[in-house]
C-alpha cells in the first residue's frame, strides 16, 4: 500500500475534518502534522449554526489515528492505545478518539471508514485501573453514524459529560444505581439528551448509551455502572375490549432502544413502526397466575375475533395457530379458571408464580379443588388434627378436618374451609363455663401473620351473633384487635391494621359493649399512631384518659402514645411486677423499644 505513516495520519485527519464540517454547529481545528503530545486538536461546538464566537459553547479534545486494512470489519473495531496517552487524557478532561481505516481499491484510490469512541474521565479511570503496569491497552470503537445529526447529538452529549465528570478524579467511590433503591439516601439523578425538533423525543432518549448522574454531597457524579441505554414505561388510560367485554382499563407504553411498543396486560407486546403503525406482536405469558388468567382469556378471544378495540380504534390481531397453539392454551386456561374458583371460594387474594409451582403444588391444588368444591373425601394413612393448614408458595390455607371413616388403615376426612359460616367453636371462661364462639376466637397472632384464606367479611357479623350467648364477646373481640396489631407489627400487612381499625370502630359504637372507655380510647389511638400523627383533638383525648384514670399501666400507655418518654418511664416504674410481665405481650410496647425498660 502506498503512503507512509505520516501520509496515513494526514488522510485520517482530512477524513474526520470533512465529516465534522457536514454539521453547521461543529467545526474541526485539527492539524495534519500536529506535534502536541497525545492530542491532535479540538472540535469546537456552537449553540447555533451561525459559527460566530459569541455562540461558542466549548471544545472537545481530539486524537485521530489512521490504520490501513485489507477489508473493513463488521460492527465495532478494537484498537491498541498507549497508556501514556490515556493517562494524559484522564489528567485533562477526557478525549474524543477517532480511528480511520483506509482500504486500497484496485482501481487506485482508497476507501475510508471512520470509527470513534467517547472517553470521559469515568471511563478512562476504569481503563487505567484495568491496564495498570501495561504500556498499551485495548479500546473499542463504534462506526461513525451515516447521519451527521446522530454524530452531532452524540458529541454534544459527550461535551456535557466532559464538564460533569471533573469531580471523578477526587471521588473515593462513585455512587451506584443500586443506591436509588435505598430509601435512606433518596438520591436524585439526571441525564443529558439533545432532542431535535419534529422528532420523536422518546426514540432519541432511548436509542443510545448515556451516563446517569447522581446529585451527591460532593457534587454531581456519574454512576459507576457507566453509560447505559435508558428505557421508559408510562401508563395510559385505555378501554381495551372485544365486543362489549372490557378486558383492560390501562395500557403501558414502553420506549426502549429507539423503539415504541404498547403492552396489553402483562403478556402481550405490540411494536409500532416510526409512523405509529402496528408491527410485530410478541407474546410472552406472565408468570403471575392472576394476570395470566386475564391475558390468556383475552389472547384467545382476540385470536378468534382477529382484532380488538383500543379506545374504539380497531387494532388488527392476526396470528397463526402455530404461534397461539389454541388447543394447548385453552386447556391451560381451564386449569387457571379452576384455581381462580378455588381461591375465590377461600377468599384468597394473593397471587401465585406459576413457574415456581412444583408437581406437589399442582397435585395439592387439584386435591383442594375436589375436596372443598365437590366434597370429595381426603384419604390418608396419617391421623390429622382437627385444625390443620397447608401451604402453596407463600399462601397458607387454614382448614378443618373431620374424620368420616376409617378403613384398612386409612383415614377418610372431610375437609372444610376454616372460615365457613356453619363452623362453630366454643370458648371456656375463667370461671370454667363454656360458651359458643366464632372461628375468629381461634385466630392467634401467628395465624393472623400467616393465614391467607381469612374471610374478613364474616369477622364482625360472627362477633355480633355471639353477643346474646357469650358474655365474653366484647373481650374476645378486643383480644382480636390486639392480636391483629401485633401481627401487623411483624408483617406490615396493611390489611391487618385496616381490619383492626374496623373491629375497634365497631366495639366503640356497639351500645352493649362493656369494655372500659379508657381502654378502647388507647386501642383506637395506638391504631392511629401506626398510620399517622395525632390531631390536636386526639392528643387531648389521650390526656383526658391520663387525668381520669388511676391505673398506672394505662397512664404509662398514654405517655408512650404521646411520645413523652420521661413520663412513660416514671409511670412504668409505678406498675406492679405481675402487670409488667403482662405488658411484655401488649402490642403498645412497640413504642417502648428505645426506653430500655427492665421487666
Structure description:
- The protein has 599 residues and is α+β, with helices and mostly antiparallel strands.
- It has 18 helices and 25 strands.
- The chain has a 7-stranded mixed β-sheet.
- A hairpin with a 3-residue loop joins strand 15 and strand 16.
- The longest helix is centred in the middle third of the chain and has 20 residues, at 326-345.
- The radius of gyration is 36 Å and the shape is elongated.
- The mean pLDDT is 90.
Strand content: 25-35%
Distance between the termini: 92 Å
Structural class: alpha+beta
Q: What is the arithmetic mean of pLDDT?
A: 90
Principal-axes shape call: elongated
Strand order of the largest sheet: 1-2-3-5-6-7-4
Helix content estimate: 25-40%
What's the β-strand tally?
A: 25
Uncertain residue segments = none
* Biggest pleated sheet: 7 strands, mixed
Number of helices: 18
Radius of gyration: 36 Å
How would the blueprint of this fold be written?
Elements: H1 5-20, E1 26-30, E2 41-46, E3 56-69, E4 77-82, H2 83-91, E5 95-104, E6 110-119, H3 121-130, E7 136-143, H4 148-164, E8 189-190, H5 201-206, E9 209-210, E10 213-216, E11 219-222, E12 228-229, E13 231-242, E14 245-256, E15 259-264, E16 268-272, E17 278-283, H6 289-305, E18 307-310, E19 313-316, H7 321-324, H8 326-345, H9 359-373, E20 378-380, E21 387-392, E22 395-407, E23 410-417, E24 425-428, E25 434-437, H10 445-450, H11 459-466, H12 473-491, H13 494-509, H14 517-531, H15 536-548, H16 552-562, H17 565-573, H18 577-583
Helix pairs in contact: 2-3, 6-8, 8-9, 12-13, 13-14, 14-15, 14-16, 15-16, 16-17
